[in-house]
Design a protein that fits this description.
By secondary structure, the protein is of the alpha+beta class. The protein is built from 4 helices and 7 strands; from the N terminus they run βααββββββαα. α1 crosses α4.
């Protein structure tokens, strides 16, 4: 099971805003060249995003389905990869002071990916997660900086209601 975490220097709400925007999936998911919502209202349970992966002249189209969603806290996906099978990808958001600790947990569920799962595959998933979380951080931090630039001078920003402490 490949688990990786990354501290993103913005609020969990800012990170969730990116995750819940189905049109931005390909912006942060490594290996995906394009994506679009294909079923339901992302990220509601059972909704899906179609994605395309390109390797030179070859392309593979498939979909990712929402299997569990706790708005602002957790998103669990089942990514389909054709003959390779499917994978469970869980993204958890935790408040960490004024920032957001993002934890990604991925493992194969079905197909060849599950059968061939080994330490080498785990290492590749870790490399992919490192790049994916770095992309997500860049997007979220840039969005937060842009929102801050557009905030009116003198506008009062309410404090975090939980004081930035971890939830019980």
């Amino acid at each position: 099971m490949a688990v990786r975490h990354h501290l993103i220097r913005t609020s969990p709400q800012s990170v969730w805003a990116v995750l819940e925007d189905g049109t931005r999936y390909a912006d942060w998911v490594v290996g995906t060249s394009s994506s679009k919502p294909v079923r339901g209202h992302w990220p509601q349970l059972g909704s899906a995003i179609g994605f395309e992966v390109r390797l030179g002249p070859l392309s593979l189209s498939n979909e990712t389905v929402v299997r569990r969603c706790v708005p602002g806290e957790a998103l669990e996906l089942e990514a389909k990869a054709g003959p390779l099978g499917t994978a469970r990808i869980a993204v958890e958001l935790r408040p960490w002071g004024d920032h957001c600790l993002v934890i990604v947990d991925e493992h194969p569920l079905r197909g060849v990916g599950g059968t061939m799962h080994n330490v080498a595959v785990e290492a590749l998933i870790q490399i992919r997660h490192r790049a994916m979380l770095a992309r997500l951080a860049r997007i979220c931090e840039a969005d937060a900086a842009e929102a801050e630039r557009h905030r009116s001078l003198g506008q009062v920003v309410p404090p975090n209601p939980d004081g930035g402490d971890a939830r019980a």
